[in-house]
Design goal:
This protein has 10 helices and no strands. Helix 5 packs across helix 9 and helix 6 runs antiparallel to helix 7. The protein has one domain. The longest helix is centred in the N-terminal third of the chain and has 35 residues. By secondary structure, it is mainly alpha-helical.
């Protein structure tokens, strides 16, 4: 597992910093390609839901059952899965709605107003902090998936990266209105993605001395829960807001199909 350490950290870092791509798009594009974002977010959700339920959950169970027995191992796997959901849900609830980065915003909003209030700087900083806290478990999930299985890690990193592009837009717009500075909005948005590799590094440092098959199983089951929650609570609702009709669902099915095919090719 240690041989994948550098790859896992690089994938987590690249995925996290993709908020900067969305932030850059907000300042250099005139309009939001909503159709693309809708399909892309749906695609990411499909990748994460499929790999979480078909591959990650199963790997977690395979690690826990030989140690704890079939019944206890299965119960522990399911408990860890919902534990991951519970953790990310609590983090989500602790972020006030007006500071939540997963509200869909459009680039066009940048031209709607030129009035800025310097006193809103505090709100802009709180928004960036909220994003960092919210992205922390995403980084941990991406890192441990890549650490254990590089193939799965790459798939999740790509899905998180795509997810972080519209998040960068959604972060930049309110911070721009808070500060009146495109430069500050870009850098705060970009740096919010740093919390993902930080989450990975902190999690690995804390858990490394205790690492075992049981810890691996618990982590992998929790990662599956985190990925499913992110998909259902963030990606799909935002994809529906950006898109029209069934575009998000077409993206979802496409993501599942691509993930299924990639797993079949490595049988």
């Amino acid at each position: 597992m240690n041989e994948n350490l550098l790859l896992a950290f690089m994938l987590t870092t690249l995925a996290g910093l993709c908020t900067g791509i969305g932030s850059a798009l907000a300042f250099f594009s005139k309009r939001t390609n909503k159709a693309f974002l809708s399909v892309a977010l749906g695609f990411s959700a499909g990748v994460m839901i499929y790999v979480s339920l078909v591959e990650i959950f199963v790997k977690a169970k395979d690690a826990l059952v030989p140690i704890h027995g079939y019944v206890a191992g299965t119960w522990i796997t399911v408990g860890a899965f919902f534990g991951g959901i519970f953790i990310i849900a609590i983090i989500d609830r602790l972020i006030p709605a007006y500071e939540n980065p997963h509200e869909a915003h459009a680039i066009e909003e940048m031209q709607e107003s030129t009035a800025h209030d310097p006193r809103l700087m505090r709100m802009g900083l709180l928004t960036a902090l909220a994003i960092g806290i919210h992205n922390f478990p995403e980084g941990l999930a991406t890192f441990f998936a890549a650490l254990t299985d590089p193939g799965i890690g790459i798939a999740i990193a790509v899905a998180i990266a795509v997810h972080n592009i519209p998040e960068g837009i959604s972060v930049s717009v309110p911070i721009y209105f808070a500060t009146g500075s495109k430069k500050k909005a870009f850098w705060l948005s970009f740096l919010s993605g740093v919390s993902e590799p930080v989450g990975a590094a902190v999690g690995y440092t804390i858990l490394r001395p205790f690492f075992s098959e049981t810890i691996f199983g618990l982590l992998f089951a929790s990662v599956a829960g985190i990925m499913v929650f992110i998909s259902l609570d963030e990606l799909l609702p935002t994809a529906k807001e950006y898109g029209e009709g069934h575009m998000a669902i077409y993206g979802l099915i496409g993501g599942m199909a691509v993930m299924a095919l990639s797993l079949l090719l490595f049988l």
